Amino acid sequence: MTDDLDLLKKRFAELSCRAYDSNIYTFTPFLGLSEQDALNSVSRDLPAKFTLSGGAPGCERVMARFGDPEEFGYEEDYPIRLLKIAPKAPKFAEALTHRDYLGALMNLGIERETLGDIILRDGTAYLFAEEKISSFLTENFTRAKHTDLTVTLCDALPEGDLFRTEEIRIVAAGERLDGVIAKIYHISREEANALFRKKLVFIDGKLTENNSAIPKDGARISVRGFGRFIYRGFQSETKKGKLNLVIEKYV
């Protein structure tokens, strides 16, 4: 893994230098959380500015675009397309999960780095993918498990919130992140601390191994294998001196 991340950091440097030297935008593939953390770790050494997008606000998997519109004098969109995946016969369709869709895509020989987030909504899935493979997917992604699928390109995001959260309230002794995670996912404090040691906790795309970290209001916390949430902070104190905390949990 270390060698892979070192190669990735060198690739970030190459893309940044090319953008800076040639005044053209360069793009990474979709980056997972560990790869985003690697980019953040070398960001100060990169000559070109960069921004991140996964295709819509709230995406966890994102592309980096090296280049600055003010310096270049022009804008260029990210090469990302949104695909709508629906069962051909909804009445007889299975209840497909994120894993079902991803597994079927991998069986087509698709590289994970070409795919962004997969969002499930009311029996339909939305997939962000690199533009270069979007036509292939519309023609060849026809089945997941035993369900026949229809894949179409979306010219715009669907109406309403693509990502949904539900507000939950927890009572905790403090705002330490390990305690918050334990409460949200109904695990022990020891199990929560193990997640930090395994490097599975990220704050705003940056790896944190500090289990006693106090997240800021609005911080997006991702816990690999469990989910993610937005921390909304301390609301009030109970009569016993504990804290009422507000969380927006992705559903």
Question: What are the main properties of this structure?
Answer:
about 250 residues; 6-stranded antiparallel β-sheet; alpha+beta; 7 helices; 5-stranded antiparallel β-sheet; globular; about 30% helix
Tell me the number of helical segments per DSSP (H or I, 4 or more residues long): 7
| Helix/strand/pairing category | alpha+beta
Strand content: 25-35%
Order of helices and strands: HEHEEHEHEEHEEEHHEEEEE
How much helicity do the residues have? 25-40%
Terminal CA distance reads: 30 Å
Short description:
By secondary structure, this protein is α+β, with helices and mostly antiparallel strands. Helix content is 29%, strand content 31%. The strands form three sheets. Strands 9-14-13-12-10-11 form a six-stranded antiparallel beta sheet. Strands 5-6-4-8-7 form a five-stranded antiparallel beta sheet.
